[in-house]
Specification:
The complex is a heterodimer. Chain A is of the alpha+beta class. Helices cover about 30% and strands about 25% of the residues of chain A. Classes of the chains: A alpha+beta, B alpha+beta. Chain B: Keywords: Molybdenum, Oxidoreductase.
């Protein structure tokens, strides 16, 4: 038995959004009596952290602390329309809609504060602490709770805003495929290191080194979690998963539970190192691009290429099972 | 353990410089983390309702068959069974989820009528007081069939003389009169003629399951107002609402979808599979109804990631330039369209990968077979294409005896390059991620490759 070491590379890009049907999302924001800001959406957070990053977008745009932001989402009676969470669109579309809504709300907030302070709203600024201040005169300030109370009970104004992001529908040209399907492209290069057991055919993915360019990492730890969590799925796609192990010859022996449908457990998770580059997208929220989907992609060919590097077997069918490795090794020896 | 900041600020300094933020770019704790780790997060199934009824499905035993008869009499005799639902109970039985964006035709029945096109296709829904009674009822539905020849391979489905399995008359989705989504850029044959070498290889994949921890499901609760409240783990609340209303043939305002907590989506929860039948069951019984997939249904009946077959033919020069790329791509949509026509177009837009190639030709086929319909899944149209494209790049580099990263850098797209789908590239950064990945693993690049940049126009 020999453990054969190999290294493989893959570089990819991935589109943010897919607008072949029009691709809108909306947001509404309103202030509560004490200066909380409720962001009303119908968007779904799949667990990737959409609620967290759009709260950051609202807080940054309003100039208010994160604690003041309340995300109320995924109810079609109370939230305005969202196309859905797919196509790596959530952060980009919903983030942009929230920023637009927050700008409108911020304008009202500053007007109310200006009237309370008896200064021009255009001379006011925020710093994320909860106060609205006069530029150059930091002691002339009012807290958002007083601004909101004044709006509700004294000035009779709603501190609110409406936002929508829409990339208009594009129709591909049938003859040539000319189209404008996406808003921007994120980029990745992954390097996989593997060990192939030439007796059992088992591939162990030792490490993944990932370099991503994602426009702007709105939340660096969560972006890294997406990179490394998605890479786990890539490893799983590469060396474990299929609902039809004998595709396309037969539909038999399809797994029906997690005893039969294998995925990497803690012992099969590679060591990962991930670096993020930022080239802000002109149309992204603070420059962010979507990376939800793409993080599973580069590891798969990187692993295939590493397997070849390790043992000379070129696997062209996913997943890369021990059987396919052993058959490839047999063919090389023949 | 504190993490090292993953952002390398040495790249794109000029474009990043306006970054004076208070919370953007900061690591803020995920808002639902505490709920998840303490078990307080409320998923749709955590809600309980008095008199909750359950839906289970009797499914096709064959890949392709005519239905001769359906007998539900024994199912109705099972204690606890409240109703059986057949296609006759579905107000608007034929649909395609993408009709919301104008995709035609409606090619899938909510419940099968006179034929089944895949093993596991729903035929009868049984509503019962308990899950066990619903399962037993579904088991006792008797269907007789006449088996028909099945098509299980994408290229066999397109071959002359193959049995036509679709009512529309073709075993492929028709893209504005074409049998495939086409990509035509430059003159690929001329490119092959001028190339120093031409290589062609084949790649393929098998279907893959989304494998969410929480299976697809919903609870529908009739409201005193006459509306239906749908607690769902859908990835797209309005998409589910709109499609469900169309199938129920009811005003959209009759429905309310509440969701937002999803135990894993990955594209598997945008197909609108459970809500319409749960609504019909709730309407027919006037009770709250739960319809949730078992793990077996999730793995074998819910849409997987499409299997694909991809042929890539490349013309390359000795200096490493790719001058022509021809791709024949086949997406196994299974028996029905669902999101596959869209994913196939997405695959087409992705070709020829992040490289600038002057001559590109692709036919991306969305092919119907007698399999579980595939549909959206994380990166669909791109994930398997990337496996093929990047395996191809590795083989080409080896064939030309060029370093694999240098080979990619030679061909990497840059700002201002025209992509094959005739969109001018901007904001590109493939060169930089390759350079950075090389540095991560100590893969040395010669100076001429280290100084390349995405914003420097390619030499004509």
């Amino acid at each position: 038995m020999t453990l054969l070491y190999g290294r493989g590379y893959a570089s990819v890009n991935y589109p943010t959004g897919m607008n072949l049907g029009g691709d809108p999302s909306q947001a509404l924001i309103h202030a509560t009596t004490m200066g909380g800001f409720v962001v009303s959406l119908s968007s779904v957070d799949l667990g990737q952290g959409l609620k967290t990053v759009v709260a950051q977008c609202a807080a940054e745009t309003l100039g208010m602390p994160m604690e003041n932001i309340i995300i109320d989402t995924a109810d079609t009676d109370t939230g305005p329309h969202c196309m859905g969470t797919f196509a790596s669109r959530g952060t980009h579309r919903v983030g942009n809609a929230v920023i637009m809504a927050a700008r409108e709300a911020r304008d009202v907030m500053l007007q109310v504060a200006g009237d309370e302070l008896e200064v021009d709203a255009g001379d006011l600024e925020t710093d994320g602490t909860g106060f609205v201040r006069l530029k150059g005169s930091p002691e002339t300030k009012i807290h958002i709770s007083d601004v909101a109370l004044a709006a509700h009970f004294k000035q009779g104004r709603t501190i609110s805003g409406r936002g929508i992001f829409l990339k208009e529908r594009n129709y591909p040209v049938p003859e040539t495929g000319e189209m404008d399907p996406d808003s921007c492209q994120a980029h990745a290069c992954s390097v996989a290191e593997v060990e192939v057991d030439d007796e059992t055919g088992v591939v162990t993915v030792l490490s993944l080194h990932n370099a991503y360019e994602i426009g702007r990492a709105l939340n660096p730890a969560m972006a890294t979690q997406q990179v490394e969590g998605g890479a786990w799925m890539g490893v799983s796609h590469a060396v474990f998963e299929s609902t039809e192990p004998y595709y396309p010859a037969s539909r038999d022996h399809g797994p029906i539970d997690f005893n039969e449908y294998l995925m990497p457990g803690p012992g099969e998770i590679p060591v990962q190192t991930s670096v993020i580059l930022e080239r802000p997208a002109s149309n992204g929220p603070f420059g962010a691009k979507g990376i939800g989907e793409m993080t599973a992609n580069a590891p798969i060919p990187a692993i295939a290429n590493a397997i070849f590097d390790a043992c000379g077997v070129r696997l062209t069918t996913m997943p890369f099972t021990p059987e396919s490795i052993l058959r490839g090794l047999d063919a090389l020896r023949a | 353990m504190p993490r090292v900041n993953p952002i390398d600020t040495d790249y794109f300094k000029d474009e990043r410089k306006s970054a004076d933020f208070t919370v953007i770019g900061k690591t803020v704790q995920r808002s639902d983390a505490l709920g998840h780790v303490t078990g307080r997060t409320e998923f749709f199934e955590d809600r309980s309702f008095p008199d909750l009824a359950h839906v289970k499905i009797h499914r096709s035993a064959h890949h392709h068959a005519r239905i001769d008869s359906v007998d539900c009499s024994e199912a109705l005799r099972v204690p606890g069974v409240l109703r059986v639902i057949t296609h006759a109970d579905v107000p608007s039985n034929w649909y395609v989820v993408l009709r919301l964006i104008g995709i035609e035709p409606n090619d899938e029945p909510v419940l099968a009528e006179d034929r089944v096109l895949y093993k596991g296709e729903p035929i009868v829904a049984v509503v019962a007081d308990s899950e066990a009674a619903a399962l037993e009822g579904a088991r006792r539905v008797k269907v007789t069939y006449t088996e028909l020849p099945a098509v299980l391979d994408v290229e066999e489905a397109l071959a002359e003389g193959a049995p036509v399995i679709k009512q529309a008359g073709t075993n492929y989705f028709v893209y504005e009169g074409h049998h495939a989504r086409r990509l035509r850029f430059g003159d690929v044959e001329q490119g092959f003629a001028q190339a120093d070498h031409v290589f062609e290889w084949r790649y393929s994949s098998a279907p893959i399951e989304h494998a969410p921890t929480e299976t697809t499901g919903c609870i529908v609760v009739p409201q005193s107002s006459g509306r239906l409240l749908i607690h769902s783990n859908t990835q797209a609340a309005f998409f589910t609402l709109d499609n469900t209303a169309l199938i129920l043939d009811r005003p959209f305002t009759d429905l309310q979808v509440k969701g937002g907590t999803v135990g894993g989506g990955f594209g598997g929860k945008v197909d609108v599979m459970v809500e319409p039948l749960a609504c019909i069951a709730a309407m027919l019984t006037n009770r709250p109804v739960k319809f949730v997939y078992t793990r077996e249904e999730e793995m074998q009946v819910s849409s997987p990631r499409a299997a694909e077959r991809i042929y890539i033919k490349d013309g390359v020069m000795n200096d490493g330039r790719i001058v022509a790329r021809k791709v024949m791509l086949y997406v196994d949509a299974g028996a029905y369209s669902r999101h596959s026509p869209y994913g196939t177009t997405k695959a087409c837009a992705h070709l020829p990968g992040p490289y600038t190639i002057p001559n590109v030709y692709a036919d991306c086929h969305c092919v119907y077979t007698n399999r579980t319909p595939s549909s959206a899944m994380r990166g669909f149209g791109v994930t398997i294409a990337d496996f093929a494209l990047e395996s191809q790049m590795d083989r080409l580099a080896r064939a030309l005896d060029i370093d694999p990263l240098q080979f990619r850098l030679i061909n990497a797209y840059r700002d201002g390059d025209m992509k094959a789908h005739r969109k001018v590239a901007e904001g590109t950064a493939l060169i930089e991620v390759i350079q950075r990945a090389a540095a991560l693993v100590g893969h040395e690049l010669p100076d001429e490759f280290r100084v390349l940049s995405s914003s420097t126009p390619r030499e004509a």
